[in-house]
Amino acid sequence: MRSVSMASSGVEENLKRLLGPLLLVLIFFLIASYFVAMVLGPLVFFSTADGLAVSKTPIQRLPFVFLGVYVDVGVSMSVGMLFLSIWFVFLVCFFVASVVREDVFVSFEKLRSGAMVASFRNYLLFMPVVAGFSFMSTLFIDLFLEMLGIPVEGPKIPGDGTGEFWELRRFLSISYAPIVEEIGFRLIPVGVFIVVYLFLVRRRNAASQAGGCSRRSLVLALNFPDKAKKDCGLRSVDGFGFLRGISGGEWVVILLTSVVFGLAHFPFGSWGPGKFLSAAVVGVFLGVVYLAYGFFAPILLHWFFNYYFNVFSLASSYFWRLSGVLFLVFFANLLFGLFVFVAVVYTFVRRVWRKPESKPPDVL
Fold first, then answer.
1. Dist. CA 339–CA 64, nearest whole Å
2. What is the pLDDT of residues 130-167, one digit of tens each?
3. What percent of the chain has pLDDT above 90?
4. Residue 46 in contact with residue 80, Cβ under 8 Å?
5. What is the Cα–Cα distance from 154 to 170, expressed in whole angstroms?
6. CA 222 to CA 199: how far, in whole Å?
7. How far is the CA of 337 from the CAs of 17, 175, 260, 288, in angstroms?
């Protein structure tokens, strides 16, 4: 049995040596593609005739989300101004992702030296992993539901497929969703829960004259809940991992908001009935990265699903040479996502079924 175990570990080490450089290349290709996607959005809106024309049109109402309820609010701005505002928020989120918790260059050195898990303290390097795993999870769920005859089609946006500049208007709508929906589904319900929880911890600490959990921690809690929990002496994802660093109450709030997030797509949304399950699963991922890294993380993960692939598709309709890039980006995400999915499932199954090794008898 020991020889089999040694042979198995030897195979795993060889696979790590072979796959390590490939995974490193894929991770950095995907991160580079994120920044290319960021450039393509303004390029389409402000360097094409259609983009310039639609950018001048006025917007009078915008939807906002509060506890899962969509409310239209009157505004006065142009399409171009709205897109620039959305794009700027994404840009700030990418900047914060590169410096929060650990500088991206420090994490890069860890990744280059083979310490893959340790390098994921930086969200910019971790984003391809969580994006790939969530992408493949939703893909498998959608395929399974379609095989059962449960449609997942959508979304059906008013004016979709008709009217002038409908492709650009659709892209604007789905690009706006990551910001407003993450405020309504993550920041308000999950973030407020964390703030109240830490406030109670602070009061308890004050009563028992224990240290930690300052007012600064409460202020930080909405944007950086894991950092605030760590300051209060509570278990954090940074110190204890995803499973032990998220409390039972936090898991309950994540699951509840994920169910509401799924319902927002169906039956109250404009997708097919099968979208409820995949949207709810994505909601769990969004809630987890929010608690682990901060509010910028779910916005960027949501950006991956809404903006990222769609901007390559939209840009390729105006710049035909980008069609090959679109295929390459999709294939790279599919390949890396499949590897991450298999690795996570394999690790989970191995831990569940692994039996503790029996100790050899003492030699007298």
1. 37
2. 999 999 999 999 888 888 888 776 655 544 555 578 88
3. 48
4. yes
5. 12
6. 12
7. 19, 22, 26, 18
